[in-house]
Amino acid sequence: METGVPEPAERRGDATAAPAERRGDAAASPATTASAGPTAPATSASAGPTAPAGHPGWTASLLAERPAPDLRGDLSRFGVGLGLASLYGLALGARQGGVSFAHHAAGVPAALVAVACLGVPALTIVLTLFDATLDAPRALSATARAAAATGLVLGGLAPAAALFVVTSASDFTAALMGMLGLAVGGVIGVIVLLRDLRAALQRDGGLLLLAGHGAALLGFAGFAVALALRVWWGTLPILKEGVL
To answer: How far apart are CA 5 and CA 53, in angstroms?
Structure first.
């Protein structure tokens, strides 16, 4: 009997302590959950995968707009445009072969050189009459980007041009298809050049006389087209044989 008396008290003590412990656990668990809750999303967000930065392709880098003129980069871009344009000349020379390859490979980019060396400096001089501040480095940068755009178009059309000029039954059809590719590449180059020159004038605040500047740019576009046609007519035998 003596040994059985304290057992109920211990049981009552354990029973009394157990609810208190449960209440303490219940009271502590929301606080723990609340304190642990905000950190969980941050941990999962920080542990998420990070998208790798993409690298622009060669074409995008060639045609990318640059914040400031770079003489070395612009000359390199201009040379790449001439090289791509010469591929189209090689495609045109495939109709006759032999020395015609060299004539056409040199004649197609010769028009780009003529516009860059004669047309752009003349446009810069004309714009000065309308108080337009267009310095030589920016003009060179715009010219190089336009030449690269023209070269990319002509280089992309070179395989199709070679197929058409080789398989055409008449010289007129071959000349017409060759001239069509030249026109597409030339028009795109002129559009890129005029857009870049206009943007340069806007940055310098040179559009106070908008009508005069617009007329000068349009006149340059017509001059560039006429000059390129004249150079191509004089250097590309395929055009002469197609008309004569």
So the answer is: 78
User: Do residues 220 and 213 touch, judged by C-beta distance below 8 A?
Assistant: no
Contacts for 64 with CB less than 8 Å, ≥ 6 apart: 56
Give the 3-state secondary structure of residue 180.
Answer: helix
DSSP per-residue codes, 28-46 = HHHHHHHHHTTHHHHHHHH
Q: How confident is the model at residue 210 (pLDDT cuts 50, 70, 90)?
A: low
First to last CA, the chain: 136
How far apart CA 190 and CA 194 sit, in angstroms, is 6
Strand segments, DSSP code E, in 43-134 are none
Q: How far apart are CA 55 and CA 113, in angstroms?
A: 31
Mean pLDDT score of the chain: 78
User: Are the beta carbons of 161 and 84 closer than 8 angstroms?
Assistant: no
DSSP structure class, residue 52? P
Residues 6+ apart with CB under 8 A from 27: none
**CA dist., res. 14 & res. 22, Å (int):** 12
* HSE-CB for 244 with a 13 A CA cutoff: 6
Rounded Cα–Cα distance for residues 3 and 6 (Å): 7
Structure token digits, residue 105: 């490979």
pTM of the model: 0.72
| Percent of the chain whose pLDDT exceeds 90 | 44
- List Cβ neighbours of 101 (8 Å cut-off, separation of 6 or more): 89, 90, 93, 94
184 in Cβ contact with 85 (< 8 Å): no
